[in-house]
Amino acid sequence: MIALSRVLASDWVVFTDLDGTLLDHHDYQAAPALPMLTRLQADGIAVVPATSKTRAELELLLARLPLSGAAIVENGASVHLPADWPGHELFESAIDYATVLTVLEGLKPRFRFRGFHDLGVEGIARETGLSLAQATLAARRQASEPVLWQDTDSALAEFSAALVPAGLRVIRGGRFVHVLGAQADKAHSVERMLAGLHRRGWRGRSLALGDAPNDHAMLSRADVAVVVRNPHSPHMPDLGNKRIYQTQETGPAGWAEAIGHLIYHDTGETDE
Ligand SMILES: [Mg+2]
Predict the structure, then answer these.
(1) Ligand 1 center to residue 185 CA distance, Å?
(2) What are the chain's domains?
(3) Residue of 17, 185, 211, 215 with catalytic role
(4) CA-closest candidate to residue 262, choices 224, 228, 227
(5) Tens-digit pLDDT profile for residues 131-157
(6) 23 CA → ligand 1 middle, Å
(7) Global pTM value
(8) Is 17 an annotated catalytic residue?
(9) Which DSSP string do the residues of 129-141 spell out, in sequence order?
(10) How far does the centroid of ligand 1 lie from the alpha carbon of residue 51, in Å?
(11) In the chain, where do the E strands start and end?
């Protein structure tokens, strides 16, 4: 955790995707980025993870890495701010999990699907490959539901349209689609978090790191975007003419490379 006064005095706030970005695509370790994370914390620069994981899944990671304590979870459906951070009121209207489940229940007669709630911990483990312990944490949801889609593509379009009046929408993953609030995504959460900090007088810049097209909106909202190289991921769509850094290294090594270059100018190049 970093005291808010230090965050407000710092030049940067960093938002980061986890899988394939801060965490290695294969072993989910952050080791190559650890010295840089420690350096950022010493300088009062907050690092805010933005992930599809639940808060419960993230707890283990937050406990072993020097991060800010702020986190964007469940694809932006839920946001956690340290008690002294500004902007709590900006997230109060978020749709809760019970509401999402109620809406889904009402759609079951029309569409074939099974959500995490229907699958239960053992079903989640079976369908995702997570261990039972991991599946238990993935099942502790606050504001969004992953749904195993068992109907046609055209039915999915109808399903998506049927969610709109309830203020919900879908994000397509692989086998799962994620059902969450229409206003809930990583990019909106980043914007609101920055708005809260700006109101308290923060005058720094934002930097966002990601490795895949699902990070595109978040990256496009930050002052500086970092695309961490990931040979397993589709090409990142054009981010426009803002400042972009493409890493040479993959995963956490690429993460550290980008932070070193952009915040600490470790390569000796000046690009300001
Ligand atoms: Mg990723």
Answers:
(1) 14
(2) 4-92+185-262 (3.40.50.1000), 97-181 (3.30.980.20)
(3) 17
(4) 224
(5) 999 999 999 999 999 999 999 999 999
(6) 8
(7) 0.88
(8) yes
(9) ---HHHHHHHT--
(10) 8
(11) 12-16, 46-49, 71-73, 78-80, 113-115, 145-149, 168-172, 176-181, 205-210, 224-229, 243-250
